[in-house]
Amino acid sequence: MNLDRRRFFQAAGAAGLALTPAAHAAVKPLTEKQKLARLASNTWPLRFLFKSRMTFGSNPTSAAMKKKYGEITMLDFPQFTKDTFPGVTHMDLFSGLFGDVADDSMYVEVPLLVGAATRTTREFDPSSESGKRWLSQLANKMAATGTTCQHISNNAPRDISEPDPEKRKAGVEVARKWLDGAKILGAKSMRVNSGGPRLAPCAIATADYPKNDELARSLGYCIESFKEMADHGAKVGVKVTLENHWGLTANPINIRIIVDTVRSPFCEASPDFCNWEHEYLMYNGLRDLAPYAHTNVHAKYWNRWKDNDVRRSVKIMTDAGFQGTFALEYEDGPWDGVEGSKYLYKEVLAAL
What we know:
This protein is of the alpha/beta class. Helices cover about 40% and strands about 15% of the residues. The chain starts with a helix and ends with a helix.
């Protein structure tokens, strides 16, 4: 982390800042209990177990996993975490699994553009009265089991970097509602995708040097939106984060640009170990983002990459002084979602 950024976060009172190399070396080895406190269960690799309105709620993979492990809802997940990952109390929750699937009143219709066609889906609305009651139920379940919501991996806010100001406004408003809902759960942070095209705009040739005005415009819109969301996050005590997750944020430098320009302790990075466009970003991209992450990262295994050294990635984060949680996000490989998450549980513990 550069000195200006370090001073800014110190002045803002942000927790979990990167230690200097000397201070980091002087830190005592973690106890087993302290190591476990650095882990978070993650609903994404376990999504096939959930009653869900999404397509992965009913398919052959889901049927096989439910037969093996049983079916759950988000209200069951706090106890599932304690039973499946001994000693883990933090959780990373995916927005698409929120709500009581049998209660239409807590869902809202959302138009989605798929190719050239528009279809309508229904997504959880944390601002609905029934949605708020459900969130309170989940908060009570967490209190009863001694678990906490560390992070919400949220796909609901859209159009954050769209040129159309009305679309951006609507996307930010969805994020505000979710930040209010995150407060009910006591969440520390919430990911918001950058929106815009699935692939970031490319530079075009000019008479002298290639230029990418379209990318710069998209970054400007994204920065404007994240400033608004970070301001609201500050009011409710929940950070908004950017993950290397499609579009603008596929490039870690773009995430750094956004966070540096927003310049708020309530806007930071939440890196994913494997969401990269090519193999040379696997560790270099993570190293770029490590100083910008303070709350939660996705400790991922994905057979997309031949070289997927989880322990190496954990060390990159800890060497940068990261003090947050490592959410166990298995994507794909030789195991099912439960087995893959348990593999990550062992690997992250071994690396801490």
